[in-house]
Amino acid sequence: MNRPSGSAPGSLAAKDVRRARVVVVGAGAIGLAVALQLRRAGVDGVVVVDRNASVGMGSTSRANGGVRAQFTTSVNIAFSQFTIEKLRQLHETASAQVGFQAVGYLFLTGTDAGEIALRRSRELQRSLGLDVRWLSAREVIDIAPFIRVDGLSAATFCADDGIIDPHGVASALWTACRRLETTFLLDTEVLEVTGGSPARVRTSSGDIETEFVVNAAGPFAHELAARAGIDLPVVSRRRNLACTEAVAGFPAAIPMCVDNDTGVLIRREGAGFLIGFSDPADPPSMETAFDPAFLDAVAARIGNRFPFLENAPISPRKCWAGLYPETPDHHAIIDSTPGAPWFIQCVGFGGHGIMHSFAAGQAVTELITDGRCTSFDIHPLRLSRFSEPGAVVETAVL
Ligand SMILES: Cc1cc2nc3c(=O)[nH]c(=O)nc-3n(C[C@H](O)[C@H](O)[C@H](O)COP(=O)(O)OP(=O)(O)OC[C@H]3O[C@@H](n4cnc5c(N)ncnc54)[C@H](O)[C@@H]3O)c2cc1C
To answer: Could you give phi then psi for residue 8, rounded to 5 degrees?
Structure first.
């Protein structure tokens, strides 16, 4: 890309940017990982544009921080395996900024249908090399003595799953990108993208001509695509999280514990516990204020497996919400757009965008450099699937 001599890498003034090879719209975990993998592959002229004043201020900053490979489809498992390894490596090279802790994920069910589902997904996970254990109630108590195991019919545990610090991930990715001379245009809104050779990105700070545009706009992916006349099947839903005040007498490190029968999950957060629950009946929304009704929904469910938290005081300072951009089958879309091959969609990651970020970045990089992705089979992520029969749905959606 053209830039006047003397400009510091990563801090170009907006007026200096006239041409790029790839414009990545969105500096969340997805856009940052896309930019990093592009630069690692030697792609020059990568410009990341975000309307916020810093990186990672969208859904990324609201995430729970779980990273797990216990999914139910091959592509999601492969994406997690790849990304978790890259996050581990980034943790090593970024002075532990990623905050990676391999505390494991524990899935629990007390129903026959739940047991069948866990058994089926464990078979797939193990066939793809994941070390997922099948636990008895006794073994669950050994790992997590606070869990109510009455009526438990099945549990799976993968010790390689864990938690990260979403802010740390964004910072570490940003630093790595800037080291590789990626250009960031922050405080800059993308107003319009139009095709052609080159394509043109109209921003609040001027136009950029580019070979490729990557839609990594998270919950605003639908809106961005619409600005190019493309209708993406991605809708956002509000998801809430709440932390308790300090709860004494429990280990500092516990697995992410998921009650599959109610959808409630818990993990340690400081001296308290963080509680999550995603109501599948929630309507589409762009609202990011914490919903107080979330606490009622949790109160009605948490006693099933985590009765010790039934009376735990919630910290009002530590309740927040964010948006899951979801597709109908709970898989992301990673594809060049039919009729607009310059426009690459990397969208619809729901509640698993951090744990899939590096794989998404790798897939987009290969689409740009080779015209196809060979590291993963991303056929299940193609855009055209929504108009075809036989949807394959990811069911381990938390
Ligand atoms: C409550 C909650 C819990 C979650 N828990 C987890 C978890 O445990 N593990 C996990 O892996 N994931 C989790 N997620 C999901 C995760 O946060 C995201 O999938 C991930 O951070 C990737 O986000 P993103 O980069 O796609 O979007 P974002 O982080 O939202 O980034 C998109 C960026 O695009 C920018 N943008 C949009 N439109 C424009 C425009 N027109 N011009 C300029 N900039 C634009 C926005 O400003 C934003 O910064 C959770 C999400 C929520 C809300």
So the answer is: -75, 135
Alpha carbons 357 and 87: distance in angstroms, whole number: 9
Whether pLDDT at 16 is above 50: yes
Domain covering 15-60+167-233+329-387 in this structure, CATH number: 3.50.50.60
Query: How many Å apart are CA 128 and CA 324, to the nearest integer?
Result: 27
Using the predicted structure, report yes or no on whether residue 339 has a pLDDT greater than 80: yes
103: three-class secondary structure by DSSP: coil
Q: Let me know if 113 is exposed, middle or buried by CB neighbors in 10 A (0-12, 13-18, 19+).
A: exposed
Number of other CB atoms surrounding residue 367 within 10 Å: 20
Of 72, 128, 79, nearest to 392 by C-alpha is 72
Ligand 1 closest atom vs CA 324:
53
What is the band of 286 on the pLDDT scale with cuts at 50, 70, 90?
A: very high
Mean pLDDT of the chain: 95
- Residue pair 236/46 in contact (Cβ under 8 Å)? The answer is no
What is 105-159+235-326's CATH topology?
D-Amino Acid Oxidase; Chain A, domain 2 (3.30.9)
Give pLDDT, residue 196: 86
How far apart are the C-alpha atoms of 392 and 383, rounded to whole Å? 13
Tell me if the pTM is above 0.90: yes
111 lines ligand 1 (CB under 6 A): no
Q: Ligand 1 in contact with 64 (CB < 6 A)?
A: yes
DSSP assignment letter at 59: G
Torsion-angle region of residue 104: left (phi > 0), alpha (psi -120 to 50) or beta?
left
Q: What are phi and psi of 318, to 5 degrees?
A: -120, 45
Q: Residue ranges per domain, the chain?
A: 15-60+167-233+329-387, 105-159+235-326
- Residue-wise pLDDT tens digits, 148-191: 999 999 999 999 999 999 999 999 999 999 999 999 999 999 99
Question: Does ligand 1 come within 6 angstroms of the Cβ of 114?
Answer: no
Q: How far is the CA of 251 from the centre of ligand 1 (A)?
A: 31
Sign, CA dihedral 38-202-215-353, equals: positive
Residue 47 and residue 1 in contact, taking contact as beta carbons nearer than 8 Å:
yes
Q: For residue 109, count other CB atoms closer than 10 A to its CB.
A: 22
